[in-house]
Amino acid sequence: MTELRQILSQGRKRIGLLIGAGAPVAIKVNAQGDLDPDGQPLIPDVERLTHVVIHELEPDDRAIVDILSAELGENPNIEMILTRVRQLSQAIGNAKVHNLNGAGYEVLADRICRKIGHKVAPPLPDEPNAFTDLVSWIGGAHRDHPIEIFTPNYDLLLEEAFERARLPYFDGFVGAHRPFFDPTSISDDVLPPRWSRLWKIHGSLGWKLSNAAIIRTGSRDATMLIYPDHLKYDQITRQPYSALFERLRSFLMTPDSLLLCVGFSFLDAQITAVLDESLAANTHTAVLAFQYRSFAQEHAAAELALRRPNLSVYAQDAAVISAVRGSWQPGQPPTEDWGAIRTTFWRIDPASGNGEFLLGDFAMLARFFALAQGTTFRPVGDPPESALEGEEL
Q: Which of 179, 247, 293, 313 is deepest in the core (most CB within 10 A)?
């Protein structure tokens, strides 16, 4: 943790972030959309999103989805279901499967996307939060290399956080009136390092196909291009996703790069395959995965880490580092002030007396980032609250 904190504070390392669907869950809000530690997640995780979207479909649509879900095996998520729906829409033409033809499945896919779009559309709360903490860290140092953020999330929370802080970022789109996707700009990478890169590798709210181009509308109502299946689309609509996945691969293949993962379950086969292949090919890149749950529940991440020594998995109660599994135990504090710093990533559960590593929680990790340049600070309140409520710097 000492080394990580030093890396985060200096601005010299090439750093990327992979922010998964678990990240927005760390922000709890009340019915009015204000921050509330006892509230509901701002945006549900994939499991909850799947349940809510299916539940809100019309009865006829829900009946079809239930049949398809049973065919997909145990607990398929909404992206797997959407992929199957789109595959059927392309494959069966006028024939019928479960009383729907290809055109019917295409309409069903559109309705599912609209439901998804509605659930991931909430705006960023006005109060300081995990996303503003993250952006504060990004803008707090002069950087030799731009921060690159890769995310499969469709929401606009990162965009809002950057714009609220007046920090420039590039997402592959150029222009002002109707910004269009330009894959050449992604590969050339000629913008200055102070421009962060934001890569929405599964698409985003606001993307739309218009006149043989992918444009960014800025509207939360545009849901056409969220989670596209590669079998569905022609060359124009496939272009952003192939370019963005290639960008992830290129980042991982660059020597001396560090990718920090949070809110990512490693259950996305396409992203995990890119990580696996790149880590095998480039041993000079490191990936640190901060997982929210206990080690036993993070089997997908742990399995990959045991095979790739340059992937370290930090779970709540244990870790895999350099392909070796072990339980957590705090070491000797490097400075007199480290006891206060430790409360930002470690706590003792008063009920069980066991220690817990906290940075699998996106809110805790973002605050750890934001405080990386602090030399001395005194936490306010007890350890779990201090990392969320603020510190005296």
A: 313
- Cβ atoms of residues 203 and 226 within 8 Å: yes
Share of the chain above pLDDT 90, in %: 64
Token pair of 50, please? 């799947």
Q: Are 266 and 300 in contact (CB under 8 A)?
A: yes
Beta strands in the chain (DSSP E): 14-19, 28-29, 40-41, 148-151, 169-170, 173-174, 180-181, 196-200, 207-210, 213-216, 257-262, 286-290, 311-314, 318-321, 324-327, 346-348, 355-357, 378-379, 391-392
pTM for the model stands at 0.88
* Token pair of 136 as six digits: 């504060």
CB atoms within 10 A of CB 242: 12
Is the dihedral angle over the CA atoms 134, 136, 140, 141 positive or is it negative?
Answer: positive
Please enumerate in sequence order all residues whose Cβ is within 8 A of that of 105, keeping only pairs 6 or more positions apart, or say none.
85, 86, 88, 89, 92, 97
What single-letter amino acid sits at 2? T
| pLDDT exceeds 80 at position 172 | yes
- Which one has a higher pLDDT value, 274 or 184? 274
Whole-angstrom CA distances from 199 to 149, 169, 186 are 6, 10, 9
Average pLDDT over residues 272-289: 96
